[in-house]
């Protein structure tokens, strides 16, 4: 009966995705499934995706000659407009001022209601990741080159200062109480930043467990950090106050992002191979891998819609890489050109 049920579910999943023209997604046991795949198409590369749960919009930067931020209704995933003529990796919005920010160079500040540009902000380095911290309404532009973090006042777009994080940052989280945590992917540590003084107060070394940590999430209530790393593929779970490692759990692929949902007490890590690992926090000292869900190859980043508890990811179908293509560093997945019209948004939920 188990084999028969699995075969039926597998056939149904393949049929659904074939009708959507997307890559095959094999179901796995567990509470989560890919509930919806919306093929939105469009040219350009992609990196981060971000859900504005309060404003009910989804922001998807697209890079290249037609660089822009494509915006979708977070409930229906229908197009809601775009911010044109900008090449950026990520976007955030301050819900108080409705000021949005895009990690382009220069940083673009825009009105999240109208999507009209407000101003550009000249920054140094190579803007990549981005974080909005409600604690003092500041935006953290994370760069893979010095200065590693530029801090911007979300109210007026002025630069407050820069922070030397000691290495290349990838993802950051806030505890909403004056502390920022940043995974430093080339140093194997997590930088702890005082949001008031804009100084690094500690580095939590995780290099003994893994290298190239590319995703970071936080259970702010219980003071737990989830560092998703690539070498090996593991989630390092540690105490946010002292950096002590609680446990390490395996991930199903090459991570490039992590989120935590306090409503369900689950951490998620998305992977380039097309998998999503769900980790359940049973207590602040007990964690288990709840599910390894098959999603879609290239769905390497993710975001959480805190209102619906859905995970959103983005992906496209790529041609196979040339036979003589060299291996990529950090375990990244080699691939050929993106197939026209294949870019899609995935909605994942229970």
Q: Could you name the key traits of this structure?
A:
four-stranded antiparallel beta sheet, disordered N terminus, 350 residues, globular, mainly beta, Methylamine Dehydrogenase, Chain H, single chain, five-stranded antiparallel beta sheet
Please specify the SSE layout and strand pairing:
Blueprint: H1 2-20, E1 33-39, E2 45-46, E3 50-52, E4 57-63, E5 68-73, E6 79-84, E7 91-94, E8 99-102, E9 107-111, E10 117-121, E11 127-133, E12 138-143, E13 149-153, E14 159-163, E15 169-174, E16 179-184, E17 189-194, E18 199-205, E19 211-219, E20 224-231, E21 234-239, E22 245-250, E23 255-261, E24 266-271, E25 275-283, E26 286-294, E27 302-305, E28 310-315, E29 344-349
Antiparallel strand pairs: 1-29, 2-4, 3-4, 4-5, 5-6, 7-8, 8-9, 9-10, 11-12, 12-13, 13-14, 15-16, 16-17, 17-18, 19-20, 20-21, 21-22, 23-24, 24-25, 25-26, 27-28, 28-29
Please tell me about this protein's structure.
This protein has 350 residues and is mainly beta. The chain has a domain at 31-64 and 206-350: YVTN repeat-like/Quinoprotein amine dehydrogenase (Methylamine Dehydrogenase, Chain H), CATH 2.130.10. Helix content is 5%, strand content 49%. The chain has one helix and 29 strands. Strands 2, 3, 4, 5 and 6 form a five-stranded antiparallel beta sheet that branches. A hairpin with a 4-residue loop joins β27 (302-305) and β28. The longest helix is centred in the first third of the chain and has 19 residues, at 2-20. It is globular, with a radius of gyration of 19 Å. The two termini are 23 Å apart. Residues 1-27 have low confidence and may be disordered.
């Amino acid at each position: 009966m188990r084999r028969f049920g699995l075969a039926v579910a597998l056939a149904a999943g393949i049929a659904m995705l074939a009708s959507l023209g997307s890559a095959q997604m094999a179901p796995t046991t567990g509470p989560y499934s890919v509930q919806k795949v919306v093929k939105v198409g469009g040219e350009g590369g992609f990196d981060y995706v971000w859900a504005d749960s309060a404003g009910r919009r989804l922001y998807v930067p697209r890079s290249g000659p037609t660089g822009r931020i494509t915006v979708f209704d977070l409930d229906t995933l229908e197009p809601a407009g775009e911010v044109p003529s900008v090449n950026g990796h990520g976007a955030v919005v301050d819900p108080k001022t409705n000021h949005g920010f895009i990690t382009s160079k220069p940083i673009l500040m825009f009105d999240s209601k109208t999507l009209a540009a407000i101003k550009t902000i000249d920054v140094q380095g190579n803007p990549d990741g981005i974080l909005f911290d409600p604690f003092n309404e500041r935006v953290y532009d994370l760069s893979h080159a010095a200065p590693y973090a530029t801090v911007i006042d979300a109210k007026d777009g002025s630069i407050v200062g820069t922070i030397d994080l000691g290495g290349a940052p990838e993802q950051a989280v806030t505890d909403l109480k004056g502390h920022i945590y940043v995974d430093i992917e080339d140093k194997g540590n997590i930088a702890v930043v005082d949001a008031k003084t804009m100084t690094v107060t500690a580095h939590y070394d995780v290099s003994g467990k893994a290298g190239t940590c590319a995703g970071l999430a936080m259970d702010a209530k219980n003071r737990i950090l989830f560092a998703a790393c690539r070498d090996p593929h593991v989630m390092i779970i540690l105490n946010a106050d002292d950096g002590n490692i609680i446990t390490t759990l395996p991930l199903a692929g090459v991570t490039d992002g992590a989120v935590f949902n306090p409503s369900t007490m689950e951490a998620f890590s998305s992977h380039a191979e097309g998998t999503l690992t769900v980790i359940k926090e049973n207590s602040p000292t007990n964690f288990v891998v709840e599910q390894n869900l098959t999603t879609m190859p290239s769905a390497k980043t993710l975001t959480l819609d805190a209102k619906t508890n859905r995970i959103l990811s983005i992906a496209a179908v790529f041609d196979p890489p040339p036979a003589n293509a060299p291996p990529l560093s950090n375990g990244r997945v080699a691939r050929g050109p993106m197939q026209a019209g294949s870019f899609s948004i995935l909605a994942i939920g229970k």
